[in-house]
User: Which sequence fits this backbone?
């Protein structure tokens, strides 16, 4: 009986894996979803009765992990490089010329779709999926194993007990993306702008249960560690990866000539919309691995492959109006108001026109038909005007001479293109300054968005940032769409912001030229608002990365009585005026691979003495000890290392040779 049951369990697992593969990899399911669900329920029931039979690779165990507090870091043994890109066929011919110069004329390429998702790395040990990581900065990524386990296209076990690291793209199929946004719309949640953002957001979930609901998928296209003995071409590698049941995109083709490469590009430019997943270009790779090695790579990217990026999608709309707004610094910017159009997955209604010169250069007139595209597929811009479609009724536009908010005359400062309102009492400047003060990188007051600030300001409940700290329950409950709960939360958030470290306040004050980074550097260097406000131009510029413009602006700011009294008022409200962040040393070490690590040096180093090496590690936050034990994180082994090295191997501790050590010190 038990034997029959365990036999059924095995066949259920095999069937479920097969159906997942058909559905997620081949996009060609042989059974309806209900059949999959029925078999899954049967498997769950058997495993419930026999918990001792549950194995980590069972299809029921994809969502096994608990929510994490944070992702841990993963070092890529072989760095994950990035890819050079080109935007035209001419540039592709240049690439081809460079390749042929190095390897001669006998070149075959493989063309692949450039999947619009996130680069990931998958490690299998003895055929079991043990580690999934993001690319991160190419050297260090994040451990997202539990999230990747939920991706059904990814086998948890390979048919052979292989040790391999394969790489590819995790993406959200268009179907999943639409369903996700539909659900979010129903729940009143913000929508994802495109499948790539949705995939990124889903992979960065600390709770794998959420990732599991997001229906991601994967295509693999390269390998880190792989037994390449019999593999001599990229195409062969793809076939090998596929033969292990790993998902490989079926559209890749070998191309013997550049004409074939261009035909491939044309064919998929046309088919792009019909594919069930998003692509943003075509990757062209040299097929022969011997030639790949000959071409090598730069620090950033391999010389044997290149990405041809599709041109940004362009659509036509009508310029209904040009609105002018005044920003925090008084700069007056024109914005195009457009008839809403879909561009690259989102609805575009407005596009910044930056300044008057741009309007003149493009000769934009209200009523014009204009071409719109998204720069970097994110920020909408007006490309040009279809002058041939003009009816003659279009109206030329000129910038106002006076501030649309306070009526004072606008000026052009020095060589600037922008017109500015320089009235410090201009309501627009004050309102935008308040919005900036509460924003995420400044005081980060949750629940105080643009709309609430504008209402509070218009009702004269706040005039400057200090007034935020006098707001009462009664003030806030009278605002539109503010209930008891949100008012209480908001008051808490305001109270909490008093404890922010100095750099947030400093950035929030909106002092000219002092961005978030400069604010952090200054807060770290001077530690208190008092010391900073007393600093001279010389003392300020003595700080690394603080230039004359910033120093002048700070000294001017702190010399003005109105700002001195504003700071005194904030102090009286109980705002913290000190730097509370980590000290500069800890920050410098935060990215160091030695930080917080216990390191053992063994054997003879060529380039450094033992004590120099020790000093280098300690100055980067590491701790050097004499003997290898289970608590050792890293062993650096020079020439003729003996028993310590052996012990490190036995304990499976990370081992570096001198070369790797020196590289890290650089
Ligand atoms: S090969 C050296 N092949 O595009 C990097 N990349 O813009 C090796 N991508 O980081 C990349 N589809 O995340 C390769 N068929 C494909 C790809 C692909 C998408 C991504 C990948 C890479 C990015 C570069």
Assistant:
């Amino acid at each position: 009986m038990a034997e029959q049951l365990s036999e059924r369990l095995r066949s259920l697992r095999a069937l479920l894996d097969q159906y997942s593969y058909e559905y997620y990899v081949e996009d060609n399911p042989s059974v309806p979803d209900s059949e999959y669900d029925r078999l899954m329920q049967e498997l769950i029931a058997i495993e419930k009765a026999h918990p001792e039979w549950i194995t980590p690779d069972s299809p029921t165990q994809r969502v096994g992990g608990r929510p994490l507090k944070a992702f841990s870091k993963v070092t890529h043994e072989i760095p994950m490089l990035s890819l050079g890109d080109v935007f035209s066929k001419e540039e592709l011919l240049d690439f081809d010329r460079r390749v042929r110069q190095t390897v001669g004329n006998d070149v075959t390429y493989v063309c692949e779709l450039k999947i619009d998702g996130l680069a990931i790395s998958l490690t299998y040990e003895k055929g079991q999926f043990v580690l999934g990581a993001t690319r991160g900065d190419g050297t260090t990524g994040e451990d997202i194993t539990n999230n990747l386990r939920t991706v059904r296209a990814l086998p948890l076990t390979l048919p052979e007990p292989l040790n391999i690291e394969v790489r590819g793209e995790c993406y959200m199929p268009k179907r999943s993306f639409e369903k996700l946004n539909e659900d979010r719309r129903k729940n009143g949640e913000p929508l994802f702008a495109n499948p790539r953002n949705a995939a990124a957001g889903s992979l960065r979930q600390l709770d794998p249960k959420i990732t599991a609901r997001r229906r991601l998928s994967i295509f693999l296209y390269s390998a880190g560690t792989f037994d390449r003995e019999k593999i001599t071409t990229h195409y062969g590698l793809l076939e090998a990866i596929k033969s292990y049941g790993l998902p490989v995109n079926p559209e890749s083709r070998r191309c013997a000539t550049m004409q074939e490469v261009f035909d491939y590009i044309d064919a998929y430019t046309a088919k792009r919309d019909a594919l069930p997943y998003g692509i943003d270009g075509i990757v062209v790779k040299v097929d022969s691995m011997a030639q790949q090695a000959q071409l090598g790579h730069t620090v950033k990217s391999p010389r044997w492959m290149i990405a041809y990026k599709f041109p940004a999608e362009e659509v036509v709309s009508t310029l209904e109006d040009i609105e002018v707004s005044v920003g925090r610094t008084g700069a007056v910017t024109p914005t195009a108001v457009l008839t809403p159009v879909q561009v690259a997955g989102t609805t575009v209604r407005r596009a910044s026109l930056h300044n008057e010169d741009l309007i003149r250069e493009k000769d934009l007139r209200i009523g014009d038909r204009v071409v719109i595209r998204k720069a970097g597929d994110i920020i909408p811009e007006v490309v040009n005007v279809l002058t041939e479609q003009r009816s003659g009724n279009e109206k030329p536009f000129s910038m106002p001479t006076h501030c649309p908010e306070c009526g004072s005359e606008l000026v052009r400062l020095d060589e600037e293109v922008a017109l500015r309102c320089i009235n410090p009492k201009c309501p627009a400047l004050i309102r935008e300054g308040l919005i900036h003060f509460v924003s995420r990188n400044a005081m980060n007051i949750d629940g105080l968005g643009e709309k609430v600030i504008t209402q509070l300001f218009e009702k004269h409940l706040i005039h400057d940032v200090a007034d935020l700290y006098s707001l009462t329950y009664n003030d806030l409950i009278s605002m539109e769409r503010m209930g008891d709960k949100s008012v209480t939360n908001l008051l808490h958030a305001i109270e909490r912001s008093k404890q922010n470290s100095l750099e947030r306040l400093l950035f929030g004050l909106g002092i000219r030229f002092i961005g978030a980074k400069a604010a952090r550097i200054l807060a770290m260097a001077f530690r208190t608002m008092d010391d900073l406000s007393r600093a001279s131009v010389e003392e300020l510029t003595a700080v690394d990365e603080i230039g004359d413009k910033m120093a002048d602006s700070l000294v001017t700011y702190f010399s003005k009585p109105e700002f001195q009294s504003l700071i005194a008022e904030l102090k009286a409200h109980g705002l913290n005026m000190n730097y509370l962040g980590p000290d500069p040393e800890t920050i410098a070490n935060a990215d160091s691979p030695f930080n917080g690590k216990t390191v053992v040096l063994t054997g003879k180093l060529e380039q450094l003495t033992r004590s120099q090496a020790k000093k280098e590690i300690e100055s980067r936050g590491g701790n050097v000890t004499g003997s290898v034990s289970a608590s050792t994180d890293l062993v650096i082994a020079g020439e003729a290392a003996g028993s310590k090295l052996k012990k490190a191997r036995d304990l499976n501790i990370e081992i570096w040779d001198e070369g790797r050590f020196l590289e890290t010190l650089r």
